[in-house]
## 1
Amino acid sequence: MKSFLTDLGESLTVGSLPWNLAMMDLRLLAINHTVRRQRDAMSAALALINADLGHVAVGFVRPALDERLWLEYLAPLSRPESQELLARLGRYDVFRSISAQRAYIGDDVMASLWYSSEFLTDLDARTTMAKTRLKELSRKHGWSGLLPPTSWIAAQVGETALYEYLHSATSRSLHFSVGEVLRSAWGSRRRNIDRQTRVPCLSGRVRTRQPVAPVHRDRRRIRPIS
């Protein structure tokens, strides 16, 4: 991966995107962002590998998959169609994020962050309008629900098999998974703790190659210290 990133840096230059061009076709902004983010993700994955934490880098695969599928879906659309879709999705995402923030921290803190009372008063109406326009697009394009599921996007571009494979492979790295809990713990039939057991910590990190309990090693076996 290190040599690949070196070659990529020498062969690919991602420059500044003139704002007027981005506003004329938001797909250009999506491509620019995706290339930059995936390049950063690969650099971060290499750093994790060098720190013996390569398993954590699996979490970078999901957004890379989503971005590839979305760009493939957007490419054949006409500019007005893609512009309408991206603009409405972006507008709803902004209002949804601000509404969630407001519900968590309250209007007083929102005011301290320079959100005007007029904006907060109109926020619910703007969010509702954004939802209404997305529902119109869902009927136009044919997806079910408010937002287009990635599985639907994958089906539109003929990549359902790829989506299902990588979605399954990465879900356990992004969400709580009993399967991941079980496959990450190692031991022996004699109930001795193996030295490579991974122990979930309260901080949310994973402590690797540390025993669950203090152990004493001799030539015959590993046994808990009594």
## 2
Amino acid sequence: MKFRVLGCSGSIGGEARTSSFLLDRDILLDAGTGVGDLSIDELRRIDHVFLSHSHLDHVTSLPLLLDTVAAERKTPVTVYAQAATLGVILPYSRTQESEADEIGLMLMAEAGYDPREAVKLWQNFEALGGERPPEFLSTHPAEGTRIERLQELMPEALERYEEQQ
């Protein structure tokens, strides 16, 4: 077994990196800022992430790691953590994604793009299918949830769109 210390500090600055350790090439113990020193190839090889607890210095790079490699993987990275840790991290990530969807929908409408196309985009993703974790274990809202929320926002988006026509 190969054990690589990526970071073991509670802070950042200079050479300091927060808690993260790589076991062999595919297991990450905690996801602190030391993860940022890994190459893209090294990030792609990570199959499992174990989070010891939900302190920011142990989880800060997890969303960026997952976002960096998700589109290039056939299977999702598996994250192991106490329920309380997942309960802290995942709803917050989903909320941010939902807010980004809303802001993006309104901006596209104000820029003169038909906001109904956003719903079609997520319907296409949903139609692709594939293996996905349950929504409560995901950093992103499920496609169906996104579609429902976009449809709820559609009257306002269409009003903004029509003002640009």
